[in-house]
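Duplicate of #3305? Posting structure anyway:
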């Protein structure tokens, strides 16, 4: 007997809206257009143009001309500062764009028309605010702690007058700790391929903070969000490239690439796990000041530690993704405390004797049992007869035409706007009830898919007209919509 073939999963790729998804940078063309880049380009035996990725000057010049050529951004950083790769940074920006455009969670009340983001540790390169403002017209606050990073971030913003009004650079030092211990950190490290994603971080004032992780991984460093975000401020998202390493030695293990990077940008006691844990702790205090909290993650294994931490603190939703650029992979982690958008997805009404609904966006405390009891209560309140088998997550319902009409009518009166359209679409069947038999007999079953998502199935118990299917589906939909308190 032949073995079953495993389904091959498509490998993750560069974001489809990334400018470089279909057209990677053409080094030959760029060298012809920018004489300053030409000395860094050489040709392999097969004639392909290449650059030496271990040469900081080459990677910096490539970043400079890509930002100028494709984004009309004037940009520079001094020797030793972290040099970002433009395609990868664009991936992160487009992923956040996807999060903001989805209807998984609502927009923040009172939020402005223009999207507002917060870049934790923007670095001398200030790459995310410059790209976000250039590509999408977003407003940004970029924070950092070292004088060099703040000075050059301000220069990079000032050298782009068409973007400067959209970007604010802010020193990430909580004044309440201004007399604390100052770390003497200014070393420059070389980073390795695959580590070109290294971040843009902090390191001036040492602040002890209680962490969710164990003592070994606890964060000790300058403020991240608390003390930097001002009272009453609202943001659509924050983003971050955390320090990926626990030591200088770890940061320099792979010699195949050199994108520069200072100690503050590269190293944090406890590494990225400790730093991201601190962002999580800050988010618990700030809660709905941000619609989305996001960060890049350098090691996939850390996701297995960080995602449970988010569940522990009671976030409403967690999203992850993989960023791919060439042979390098990084991961994105996002979470929110906003209540998920209520959502019912109804299957197409056909002449079958069953109807299904998918419930998405339920809070964790609303599982299959709670929803089943809620549906039962709603039908009992309308006078219908219910016979429950809670161990099997099943309820058999018998309802007269009048009771079905009452369910539809009451649903329109008590349900909020998020369900109104669905109810209006399904309740138009009530005028045709007189064509049916005197009663509807159907079974409601609830199946839990994943936390926050349930599948409900309504099945006719006796052979009845197709219109009966639509009517039972409508009454079930109204009951579920009105009785599932997801806020």
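Output from current build:
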């Amino acid at each position: 007997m032949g073995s079953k073939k495993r389904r091959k999963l498509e490998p993750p790729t560069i974001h489809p809206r990334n400018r470089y998804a279909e057209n990677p940078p053409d080094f030959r063309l760029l060298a012809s257009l920018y004489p300053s880049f030409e000395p860094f380009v050489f040709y392999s035996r097969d004639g392909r143009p290449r650059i030496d990725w271990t040469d900081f000057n080459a990677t910096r010049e490539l970043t400079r001309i890509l930002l100028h050529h494709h984004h009309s951004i004037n940009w520079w950083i001094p020797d030793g500062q972290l040099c970002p790769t433009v395609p990868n940074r664009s991936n992160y920006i487009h992923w956040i764009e996807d999060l903001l455009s989805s209807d998984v969670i609502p927009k923040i009340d009172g939020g402005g028309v223009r999207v507002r983001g917060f870049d934790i540790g923007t670095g001398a390169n200030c790459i995310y605010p410059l790209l976000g403002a250039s590509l999408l017209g977003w407003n940004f606050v970029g924070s950092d702690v070292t004088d060099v990073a703040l000075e050059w971030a301000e220069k990079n913003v000032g050298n782009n007058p068409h973007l400067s009004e959209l970007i604010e650079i802010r020193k990430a030092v909580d004044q309440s700790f201004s007399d604390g211990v100052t770390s003497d950190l200014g070393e420059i490290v070389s980073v390795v391929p695959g580590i070109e994603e290294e971040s843009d971080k902090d390191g001036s004032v040492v602040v002890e903070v209680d962490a969710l992780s164990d003592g070994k991984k606890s964060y000790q460093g300058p403020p991240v969000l608390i003390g930097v975000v001002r009272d009453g401020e609202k943001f659509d998202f924050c983003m971050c490239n955390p320090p990926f390493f626990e030591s200088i030695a770890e940061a320099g293990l792979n010699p195949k690439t050199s994108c520069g990077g200072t100690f503050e940008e590269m190293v944090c006691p406890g590494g990225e796990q400790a730093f991201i844990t601190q962002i999580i702790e800050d988010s618990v205090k700030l809660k709905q000041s941000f619609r989305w909290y996001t960060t890049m993650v350098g090691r996939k294994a850390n996701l297995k530690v960080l995602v449970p931490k988010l569940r522990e603190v009671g976030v409403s939703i967690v999203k992850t993704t993989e960023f791919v650029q060439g042979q390098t992979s990084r991961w994105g982690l996002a979470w929110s405390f906003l209540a998920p958008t209520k959502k019912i997805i109804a299957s197409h009404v056909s002449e079958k004797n069953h109807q299904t609904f998918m419930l998405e966006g339920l809070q964790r405390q609303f599982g299959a049992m709670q929803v089943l009891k809620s549906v039962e209560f709603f039908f009992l309140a309308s006078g219908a007869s219910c016979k429950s088998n809670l161990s099997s997550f099943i309820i058999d319902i018998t309802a007269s035409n009048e009771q079905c009409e009452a369910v539809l009518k009451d649903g329109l009166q008590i349900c909020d706007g998020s369900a109104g359209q669905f109810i209006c679409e399904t309740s138009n069947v009530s005028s045709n009830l007189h064509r049916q038999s005197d009663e509807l007999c159907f079974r409601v079953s609830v199946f839990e898919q994943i936390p926050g998502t349930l599948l409900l199935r309504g099945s006719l118990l006796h052979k009845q007209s197709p219109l009966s299917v639509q009517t039972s589906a409508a009454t079930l939909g109204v009951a579920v919509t009105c009785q599932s308190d997801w806020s």
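Confirmed duplicate; merging threads. The first helix runs from residue 27 to 33. The mean pLDDT is 75.
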